[in-house]
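Hi L.,

As promised, FtsW/RodA/SpoVE family cell cycle protein:
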Amino acid sequence: MNTNKHFSDRIDWTLASLLILFMIASVLAISSAQTTGQYAAIGTNFAIRQGMIYLVGFVLIGMMMYFDMDQYRKMAWFLYGFGIVLLVGLLVLPESLVPYINGAYSWYNFPVIGTLQPSEFMKTFTIIVLARVVAGHNESFVNRDLKSDLWLLAKIGLVSGIPFILINEQPDLGTMLVFIAITVGIILVSGITWKLLLPTFTSVAVIASSAIYLVLFRQDIMERFFEDYQLRRIYSWLDPYSYASGDAYQLTTAMSAIGSGEIFGKGYQDRQVYVPDNHTDFIFAVVGEEYGFIGASVVVSLFFLLIYHLTKVALETKSQFNVYVCAGVISMITFHVFQNIGMTIQLLPITGIPLPLISYGGSSLIGTLFALGLLFSMKFHHRTYMFSNEDDD
């Protein structure tokens, strides 16, 4: 085995460089978003705090690189159990510790530290456990058949279903959708036969298509099963300007801000359209207004480069466990980006999902960097054997 690699050669500098670019883009966007009088009254510089959170995240990544992926595989169930305990605590602890924020009990409130959203970390804990479950199953069932694949699908459903149910009780629709994306992403690379997956996904597609038909053409039926406020969310997405003063206010202002930026934008801190929560979930509207189509394209390109690099890492690794971890992280980030930008431009309904690595938020940012820390660990502990073309992770 070749152990002569210098310390710096074991660091994933491509991923590190991308994170630095994301940090610059995030701090600039948040710095501009907080120029309105609303933020001046709060008295908090969110841009500086975001930079500090990034630094804490970089330290966390450095600590995570100390452990190799085999150790993360061994810790999988402990991390998962810890995350489940935190999610249960949100449902049973008093409001003094678990405040009601934005219509959900999703955060712990600690002195000095501030708010902490455990579901952001549970995403990565679930990815690690799903990777262990799938890798262990495939190692045990070398000769695959429909019965073993069905058993694997049941185990995946159980592991992802527990946090899904707990998050539904908060409730937090956006995070629930992220867990679905993670689960689907890992299932697609798990080796389960398409004889089982095709009818499953077809059934889901039929249900989704039927729901869309009912929303568009049979509103009378939808009113029997959904509350009025839930239907208003759907209709305000489909026809936002009819609800511009109410449920669709954020959406209409976000689209106005992005459209007003045109090609080159209005310039740094030269916004004119007020968008609520523009430093968190609607940060892309700030980018679109101030930096225009060019600036928005740069941000989207950064995400493309990030997903491309993570995919490259997944293709290069020889460990099944590592592949499934990469698949989970890629699915998580891809869905976050697609959903956040999509809801900002009316492509998708608003679900309150932040733009990863750009939106302000300690739990979201640290949670994403925690997931990416696993990729840094893969590179750092990558071992190359002499006289062989095979690598061992």
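Residues 384-391 have pLDDT under 50 and may be disordered.

Thanks again for sending the construct details.

K.
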